[in-house]
Every structure is written in C-alpha cells, then in structure tokens.
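Design review, sub-item: ligand-bound model
Attendees: FS, YL, KQ
YL presented the inputs for the 2-amino-3-ketobutyric acid complex:
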Amino acid sequence: MSKILIIGACGQIGSELTHKLKEIHGSENIIASDISRSNMDIVNSGIFEILDAKDYDAVKACVEKHDIDIVYLMAAMLSGTGEKFPMKAWDLNMNSLFHVLNLAKEGVIKQIFWPSSIAVFGPTTPALETPQHTICEPTTVYGITKQTGERWCEYYHNNYGVDVRSIRYPGIISWKTMPGGGTTDYAVEIYHKAITQGSYECFLAEDTELPMMFMEDAIAATIGIMDTPSEHIKIRSSYNLAAISFTPKAIFQAIQKHIPNFSISYKPDFRQRIADSWPKSIDDSSAKTDWNWQHKFDLEKMTSEMLTQLRDKYKSTEKII
Ligand code: AKB
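KQ shared the predicted structure:
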C-alpha cells in the first residue's frame, strides 16, 4: 500500500482531499501536514505533521520518516493574497514545488500531484472555451508562479522521468472549509452570507463570468488523474478542467430560488481586475479524452447541496436568519 503525504492539508481543497484519501487508502497510510494546526478536524482525524513546505530539509525528513511514495502539494498562496505579498507568493509557490520535484528526481518519492489554475491565463488568452494549448500571459503573481510551475513540471517529466500530474483548477466551491485569499472566493462566501445574514456585498461586478466547480467534482478529478495509468497522461504541464461557468448575478438568482428575500449589492475591489483577466469558460476535452474526466454538478445541484449542508452546519450555532 502506498504512503501518501498531503502538504497543505488544512486548506480548502487539502482538507477534503485528505478525508477522501483516508476513505480510499485507510487512515494509517495518509499523512496530513500543514504549517499550522489551522483545521482541528484534520489535526485530530489521523496522522498530522507540522510542515513548512518551503523548508527542503523538513519536507525530506517528513517524507523519509513516513516512507512516503506519493505527495499531493496543496500549499499555495492564491491570487488575491499573492498581489499583496508578491515575493512571499513566489517563494512559497515555487520553492515548495522544486522541493517535491527534486525528491522525485532523486527517487525518494514516486508520484506528485501539483495543482495549477485558470490563473495561468491572462487578458490576451481567448476567453471563451479557452483551449488547452493557447496564449498564457498571466498578469498576477499567482498566475506567473502557476505558469512557471507548469513549465518545470513538464521539464522534470521530460528530462528526469518524474511522474508529476496537474490540473488547472477553476474556482472551487465547498461548504466544509473556507477558501483563503482567492478571487473566486465570493462564490463560497455568498452561500454563507445568504444563510447567516440574508444579504451579501460582492467584491466582483454582477456580470463577471468565471469558470467554477463544486468540491466533490474537484476531488473526483484529482483522484481520477492520479489513478490513471501513466501512459495515458499525455499532458505533463497541466490539464484544463471545466464544470460550470457563472456570474455573481447568476449564482445570486440560483440562491434566491431557495431564499426569496436574499439580496445582493456589488462593490468591486482590486480582485475585479484579476477576474477580468481570466477566462469565462474552459475547453477540457483533453482531460475528457485522456482520463475520462466528467463533472457531475451544475449550478442548481451545487446550490441545493451547499444550502442544505450549510443550514445543517449553522443549525447549532443559531446563526441562521
Ligand atoms: C483563486 O481565485 O486565486 C483560486 C484559483 C482560481 O486558482 N481559486
């Protein structure tokens, strides 16, 4: 049985991935790690290590201590926070990737999952049904780190045979753990505010269309690409991945069907410029062909699931309006 290390296990995607991998492989084979104990559910649910992804010696020691075969590197600074701390974003996003790529190059680990993002695209990219291979001129620090990372993943695969796999995640929507510091975070916040306050002030304009995905689909994609036989993985930079595209107005209207009195106002901030530089929809035919990717959740199904789960979560806290 392979031993798996998740770096950044307390975060939005890392936490749900950790639970799913435990279900599949058994808790004893999954080592969750993060820079702090910011998610007690993860800390208390199995093996947990404090780990700074930027520290090569610490990452190597953790990998050796637990005899790790596979690393999911989920630690990253996202687009919004990256614009505030450009050098920190570069340091974390690039050095953590080099550390795991080099451990694979040295034969210490066998397989890597590393997330890329729609942030690799920029204002010169075709915005509708953005192709797999197209112009990538990102204008955010986060996007630059993801684009550079993709180039290095492909380089390490081509030159050193490293089995690294990657997906360009769209905005991910989930109810268990909040996202932190992204431009697509509004699409999670809006559900929480609908339930707890009945109103939401959106930091993007009402007609800003972006590619999005429900967490269950994102986890299925992540595990799907990692379980695919290596010879089918034709793209070693990162795969386009798509599910649903919508605007703040469309998600507001979908919520209003369940909560008729819900209201919204729009106050675009610095993240509007980031959102405007990203695609509106993505062509993910390569992922469909190479490893049978197919999403399950549309806006209606996701909205219904989000509201049901969040109502349940907030029930005991008396925060529901
Ligand atoms: C962000 O908004 O920065 C992320 C992403 C699209 O990668 N959610």
